[in-house]
Amino acid sequence: MHVFELQELEDATQSFSPSQLVGKGSHGSVYRGILNDGRRVAVKKQSLALQNLGDNTKLQNEALILSSIPPNPCTINFVGVTRHHKIIVTEYMPNGTLHHLLHLSTTPPPWPKRVSIALQLAEGLRCLHELNPSIVHRDIKSANILFDDDWNAKLADFGLAARLRGDDVEAKLPAGTIGYIDPSYTTPSKLSTKIDAFSYGVVLLELVSCRKVIDVTKSPASIDEWAIPLIEEGRVIEICDKRVCSSLYTRRAITKLLGVAARCLSPKENTRPSMREVVACLECLQMDLMAHPYPWSMNYVRDMVRSMMRRKKSRFSGQCGAIVVTSGACRDADREKNGGGSNNISKGRLLVREILADITLK
């Protein structure tokens, strides 16, 4: 564990300038900084309230937990700490949080990216849970999932993390964030990796729906109370983020993803999957999506045809009026032309498979 001098971090953050502030919470404030060797880092400084109380237990716990985690691509990398653990330093994650991406960004992530995020988070949790002793994060939420330069998701903020020591656990009172915390986690003795599994299930619902975890303007206000009945009734499409088109293949993947979420949110802890099981399932989903990279929905086909027509580069551009891929008005016009009711394909019309073949070749 590298121990920094306070002056080094003051130089790196322009004396903790407000212009370098990137985040603030109850436990501390996070500043971006550049070390003398050129590395970009995030510097977490204890909050003023905790400084006044002389309580540095949260940052101390985070430093000890981070320093014990073997390097892996799905958890944030620990860089060092100051004496007495009042300031900790981690790698800098320039692309913000999953919470921001889902709720504040104007560009929603496509479905394959969402599956990738879910897989990376599951892999990070698997690494924590399979350590000896296991580490339970206890605060899995979209605001604690950060993105690096390449938009890879990493789990961060280990201030509430706890170790499981055989049949015993660290004597920590239940903690977490409302909306994400397992309602059955009521005493220290109930701490287990299944607590993280529940919170992970909530994040999956948030990832698919882009609905707030707690939304008092809706009924029910809790995302899991709203989504689980819809999953059980097979009404998956009602949960999906409406801003992003889905195809046959992505809808299958989303259905399986929500199935994983439902298992993670089971009130019976022993029926919740391990993160190893989740990782295996999501790897299969990701491979399936990679095998079918084109979103073959009718909306997609229609948009592609319109684009081809606008560009006037298609060999079919001279027969635009005859292209019928979707709907209503075109079909009615064809029926009228053929004396009503005829479904025969006229010479000027194109089969959808021909359009798809043309798009694929491009």
From TrEMBL:
Binding site for ATP: K45
Origin: domain of life: Eukaryota
Pfam families: Pkinase
PROSITE patterns: PROTEIN_KINASE_ATP, PROTEIN_KINASE_DOM, PROTEIN_KINASE_ST
Keywords from the named record: ATP-binding, Kinase, Nucleotide-binding, Serine/threonine-protein kinase, Transferase
InterPro entries the record matches: Kinase-like_dom_sf, Prot_kinase_dom, Protein_kinase_ATP_BS, Ser/Thr_kinase_AS
GO molecular function: ATP binding; protein serine/threonine kinase activity
Residue span(s) of domain Protein kinase: 16-295
Stated family: Belongs to the protein kinase superfamily.
Record's protein name: Protein kinase domain-containing protein
